Structure formats: structure tokens, C-alpha cells
Amino acid sequence: MPQILTPREILAQLVSFPTVSHSSNLDLIDWLETYLASHAIPTARHWNEDRSKAALLAHVGPLQAGGVVLSGHSDVVPVAGQNWTSDPFELTQRGDRLYGRGVCDMKGYVALSVWALAEAQRLGVQRPLQLALSYDEEVGCTGAGPMLDTLQAVFPKASLALIGEPSRMQPIQAHKGGVGYQVAVKGFEVHSSLLTYGVSAIMEGARLIGWVNDRNTALQGAQPSPLAARFDPPFTTLHVGMISGGTAHNITAADCRFAVEMRVVPGEDLEALAAEFEAAALALTGRMQQVHPDAGIHLHRFFRVPALQPEPQGEAEALVRRLTGANAGGVVSYGTEAGIFQAAGYSAVVCGPGDIAQAHQPDEYLDLSQFEAGQAFMARLLKDLA
Prior knowledge:
Strand content: 15-25%
Number of strands: 15
Structural class: alpha/beta
Shape: elongated
Number of helices: 9
Largest sheet: 6 strands, mixed
């Protein structure tokens, strides 16, 4: 007989695996694969390059196209430096809340999805139900694209995807896209009294950050489109969150490193903005190399997440609205894997238990009422598929 666990029991197992993005997720994947196999649910893996992580894929129901994908990610953000009241990797209940790293973002939804797959296998469904559990979402959604290639190769392609990021079980029909760059500025060291004979990587990096600030000013001063006006903030943003470099206060800096992220409103050209940034870095490199040929700016794009575009009469949103009773879909400024599913030809919507305000926080929690609402949603989905 297969082992039948409740959603809460599954969640306790998932939380116990410390799947921080810089670590392997294979213990969690092994456990889930074994559990699903006990229900005779076929699974497949997509491995990362060094096979330290894997995405898990599963399929229940007839082997035909047109099903529903439940999409989640296995990784969580670090707990280092955070002040937790209880063990972050042990599911703990206090009052009407469940605490633990990832309970909100987004192991609560994953637990509900795994429970739903086992129920679908036990009860039977006429329309297929699939699981797509990715890795490295928290470092830029870098695992989802390759995972989808494998999903479509091993199982029939579904028609819609439900991405369970925390939305308080309300449908999210659009989110911003994003692109991120690691910026490495190489200067040329001289004594600061001979400034004009050297190249300060920090000061030249500051020029590029100045370009970012100027671009923000222009974007914030423009009239937002009707879609952009629905977002908070209602415009595309560029941001530098960390910077390092230099040797001493009296030496022109040989190096400077920082990251730039852009969060782009749907309908605006993400690649055009990225090209403007790259052109600004190239122009600065030319100026720096007039002083010393080894100086310059190197850009490494470390993530790209397409925006989730609203879908008029979209199948995914229509399904969620029917199951939740919601009258309309919302928008959010953060990015998810929904845009990647949509770009791959799926109708996509974001809907999951919990509040995004709790994601990544110390004492991350999920309201029991939200977890229960998520289970009720899954039960209605199973009835719909049957």
C-alpha cells in the first residue's frame, strides 16, 4: 500500500531539507521521487550541469496533451544572519501560523501540489496533472527554462501552468520582467596624487551607476502606460544593491564590482533597455582605455526573467478565477517563473497560498487559513480535472 501523507506531513518533510540555493537539493528530490513512486506516479529529472541539483517532473492521468502543470521551486533563501525564534528547518506551529524557511515561498504550495498528485492518482482524472519543481529560482529563475525543455520531451505538453508563488490565493495575471548583470570594472593603479595617469575602477564604476540613476529619473518622469499604471511602482526600475572594490584611500582602485538589476514593466522592451546599459558600459570602456589599454568594464548577465503578460481570455486565469471565485486578476512587481512558462507556449497565472511580505524573512510563516485555502483549491482542481 502506498504511504498516504497529509499536506502538512508533506510540508514538514520538505521544510526539513535545507535547500538553500547555494546547496544541493537532491535529498529533497530523492524523498519526493520515492514518495511519488509509492503511488505509481511516473517521474523524471532534469539535472544541472554538475548534477548537484535536479528538477523533478511528474505526470498523472492520460498520456495526452492539454493538461495542467503545478509549478513550484525547491530552493529557498539563506537564513544566515537572521534572528529566528525556532529552528528554520523544522516545521513549527505557533498559534494559527506555520513557521519554517520556505513555508510561504514556496514549499507550502509544493506540499499541496504533491498531495494533489497523489490524490489525482488515487481518484483518477480525465485531464492530465503534472508537477514541475525547479531549482535555482531564487538566484534568477535560471533552472526553469532548461527544465521545461525536459518536461516537454518526457511528458505530453500541458496547455496551462499554475505558478504557486504566494498571492493569498488570488490570481496574478501580470508581473514585471527582469535582467541582472554582474559588473566587473578593471582600473589601473597609481598613487592618487597622480590621478590622471591612472584609472580608478570605483570612480568609473560610479559613472555607470550614475547612468543607472539618470535612467531611473527618466523612467519615473515618463507617463506610464495603462498597464504600467497598475503596478507599484508604476514604471520600470534599475537598482544597484551591493558594491565593493579598491585597495587603499590613496591608490586609484584596480577593481570595482557591483550588480545591476532591472525590473521591466510588461509591454516595455527588456532587451532594448539591456542594450542601452551595455552600450553605456562599452562607451566608458573606450574612455578608460584611452588612459590604459587594460582598463575596462566586463558585464556578465546572470539572469533574465521574461515578464508575465496579461492574457485576454487566458485559460489559466479563467481556471483559477473559476476555482477561487475571484472576479479579476492582479499584478505584482516581483518576477516568477510564470513568464518563462508563458514564453514557452503555456497559458500561465500566479496563484498560491501566503503573503509575499513573509517571503525571505526571519520567522517566515504561512497562515493556517491560507494553507487550508490552498488545499481546498487543490480539491476543487481535482474535481475539475475529473
